[in-house]
Every structure is written in structure tokens, then in C-alpha cells.
Design brief:
Layout: H1 4-17, E1 29-36, H2 41-59, H3 66-72, H4 75-78, H5 87-102, H6 106-115, H7 120-125, E2 134-142, E3 146-153, H8 161-169, E4 174-177
Antiparallel strand pairs: 1-3, 1-4, 2-3
Length: 184
């Protein structure tokens, strides 16, 4: 298996240029997402790529502390993140969310997840070597209202909330996986 530096460098190339014509998908294959935007899909995609490139470039050399992330990442993304909560506030919120989820349908869980902003520290945590399970494969904009993104995945199932927040933090309205699961 490739190490994370190779995965990040390949991902960086695909973010900028897309996959090579004969490039083989690694890991378990790809999973696709539909990102809904409010008529600004090209801008949301551009910003999402910018944020992810900054994350990749810095993680190839070191793991910044949270205060550094605030200066590394663009303001438009950082300002959309949830302010840091105390441990006590966080515990209360987790308990409240757990109670709310017990009365929700599975479809409602996705809606709730798309409404809650992430703390920057939680979001950056999921890009660390041992927590990273997806890598950008390809993307395109459809009619300024949608972005279609494919990610190469290296675990199944895998956590993708940080991918969703990447787009929502860059201005998307809603992010949902395409229903068919893993693709070749």
C-alpha cells in the first residue's frame, strides 16, 4: 500500500488536474457525493480545492497545532467553523444530539449532520495519518447548482463527515453520498 505522503501527492495532483487518463483507482474503489449549492457551485468547488490543498501541503511536512490551522486555512472556511466549546458544553451537546437522533429516521440523520457546523480542531483531526480514509479522485460542476465529487476510499465503511464539512464550510448547502456505495 502507498504511504500517506504518496497518497497526498497523488491527491494533490488530482485536485489540480484530475486523474490521469489511465490512472487506476486504489483502495476499495470510489464513492461519489452530490454537493448542492445555491447557484455558486464553481466558487464552492474552487474554495474546497483550495482548503484541501492547504491541508495536504502542510501535512506532508508536519502536524500543526490548532492555533496554526487558524492562520493556515482561508478565513471563509475558518469563520464558518463552530467556535471551540468547553468540555462540559461538548458533553451536553453530544447527549442532546444522541437524544434527538433516537427519534429521527435515518434520512433525518443526514439532514441533521448537514446542519451542524464542525469545530476546526475536530475537522483537522480527521486528516491525520491514522484517521484518513478517503482521498480526492475527481469532480465536476453541473449547472452552477451541483458538484459531483468522487473520492478514492481506503476503508469501508469509512468516516466522511470531514468531506461533507469541507464543502459546507466552503459554502455548499447540503452534501449527500450517492446511494450505490462503492464504485470501481
Amino acid at each position: 500500500m502507498l504511504n500517506n505522503i504518496d497518497l497526498w501527492k497523488n491527491e494533490e495532483r488530482r485536485i489540480i488536474h484530475g486523474p490521469d487518463e489511465n490512472e487506476k483507482i486504489g483502495g476499495w474503489g470510489t464513492n461519489r457525493f452530490i454537493i448542492y449549492c445555491n447557484g455558486d457551485a464553481p466558487l464552492v468547488l474552487e474554495r474546497s480545492k483550495e482548503v484541501l490543498l492547504k491541508v495536504n501541503q502542510i501535512l506532508q511536512t508536519r502536524l500543526p497545532d490548532i492555533s496554526e490551522w487558524y492562520s493556515i486555512l482561508p478565513d471563509y472556511f475558518v469563520y464558518r467553523c463552530r467556535p471551540k466549546m468547553s468540555h462540559e458544553q461538548s458533553k451536553k451537546e453530544v447527549e442532546l444530539e444522541r437524544k434527538i437522533r433516537t427519534v429521527m429516521t435515518p434520512a433525518d440523520h443526514g439532514v441533521l449532520s448537514n446542519m451542524i457546523p464542525w469545530e476546526l480542531s475536530s475537522w483537522t483531526h480527521w486528516f491525520q495519518n491514522e484517521e484518513r480514509y478517503w482521498y480526492w479522485w475527481d469532480s465536476y460542476v453541473h449547472e452552477d447548482s451541483h458538484i459531483f465529487v468522487a473520492v478514492e476510499i481506503h476503508e469501508w465503511p469509512y468516516p466522511s463527515g470531514n468531506l461533507s464539512w469541507l464543502f459546507r464550510g466552503c459554502g455548499a448547502c447540503f452534501v449527500e453520498p450517492e446511494p450505490e456505495g462503492v464504485n470501481d
